[in-house]
Design brief:
Chain lengths: ~200, ~200, ~200
């Protein structure tokens, strides 16, 4: 098991837990919540693989569904300890978004897809699972929340693409830089309620 | 035409009718309602086939779209007789969910996919069409309704998988047991408002 | 560059602009709005290509994402001039729907798919991007709005299919007739609030 496989499973667990947190706001029960958790965890990567026309990543490796459903059961069991009102959902989502987004760009690079398309695929993969989660549970999608959401993803993926394309950095290191950039930027946006108007040169 | 083909068409008609019932709560017209009916009827199976990377089931056989749209037109015409306030939508959904879920598990088994993944694919196939229906028509998804929804599906599919894997029951009989189990369990949950807390050993 | 390629890019730009208009009703920022614009613009055609099992149209040609994101940035920049309360969104959607729907039917015809399925694929392609847009931005889908929506699409695509199948008109001319029919019918429905009850022989 290499580092990126483990990081993928970490992202899967983070997204699954975010699915449980979203589901707790509804009248859902254990198995319903676990379905939301699993679909959230594997949704973005499934869309990515369908578009890339490669085998869906979880179909030949039972670890993904296992980690997603186990995390779902554990998070549901610990629901009294999880404060659904806090920003835990947003931070867990940020972890998943950062790792799935940068991982998708790496996968596209390995397939010989141009970096600009890799960035687009990274965005789709990053936000796909969360959009399914928010639609299933009737929440406004995080994409339309006021705090910066797409901006950190696009910025981090662009940085990762530039490091690979211009400086020739190896893909793995670039992924780590990309993922850490996305997570840090997004986490700061959540914590300090950063909005576009805060960073725009010409305030609207 | 074998039994399973006919059961598939029955499930298609049931899902299509549930789409019309969902659409009647909006200001939709005939053709809009028929589009909702068709997308509801073939949505789950389409997602299943995309993930399995096999040809989408309705693309080479006109019967599916024909049955779905004809059912849509008939159900729309009979809309005054259909009481949208009753549980008809939930029972029709239960029929579709039971037959599509167990049919998807059978299809996965035939493709040599592990039973655990077959159960996951069965869940996705079963709930896919209804999720599209509820999103299109602006309803809360049945998945987050308080009555047991994912539980009957997972229980019935697990029973079906165990019968195939452990007892060596032939696939067709196992499908019938799975479908009847899911429908009966779900119908009882609708009728008697069964919730997780009713069946949990340790009530929350 | 042939006429149909250019018409496709026009449809892409129209859908992207409709995505920005939908996004302006939320608290979204520039990059979030551009993501909505791009997903709206390429969503329907992506679903079409996945179902047809052909390479996703934008993956090997950077023009599509470029036009979609550039239109998104321009429309977002001009947001003070765009009156989100007007029907601009509906008319832009009508342009995209007309061109993507008739283009999808043409693509299916070229692949040897029966005309009845081509009409169904045209409908799915036409409405797919808008449904994703409306779901992302929390709007009621245009499909369930009272003005005729599915009716113009189905009518125009049926006309196009009849012209190809019965009169043997060449595909390109038929596409133009189909697209103009859909747009004109839909635009009249928006302008004059045409509803099914207005055109039904037996008023309900």
């Amino acid at each position: 098991m290499d580092l990126f496989y483990i990081l993928g499973l970490v992202a899967t667990a983070a997204f699954a837990a975010s699915g449980i947190l979203a589901a707790l706001a509804t009248r859902i029960d254990l198995f319903g919540a676990v379905v939301v958790a699993v679909v959230t965890a594997v949704g973005g990567g499934t869309v990515r693989d369908l578009i890339l026309d490669v085998p869906v990543f979880w179909i030949h490796d039972q670890a993904w569904l296992f980690v997603a459903s186990l995390t779902g059961v554990l998070a549901f069991s610990a629901r009294r300890q999880l404060n659904a009102g806090s920003n835990a959902l947003a931070y867990l989502d940020a972890m998943g978004v950062a790792l799935f987004g940068s991982g998708a760009l790496l996968k596209c690079t390995a397939l010989g897809i141009p970096l600009s398309h890799g960035v687009a695929m990274g965005v789709v993969t990053a936000i796909g699972g969360g959009l399914i989660r928010d639609t299933l549970t009737g929440r406004d999608t995080l994409l339309v929340s006021p705090e910066l959401y797409a901006t950190p993803i696009i910025a981090g993926l662009t940085l990762q693409a530039l490091l690979v394309g211009l400086s020739g950095l190896d893909d793995s290191t670039a992924l780590l830089v990309g993922a850490v950039s996305i997570f840090t930027f997004r986490a700061l946006a959540i914590r300090w309620h950063w909005r576009m108007s805060d960073i725009a040169i010409n305030k609207p």
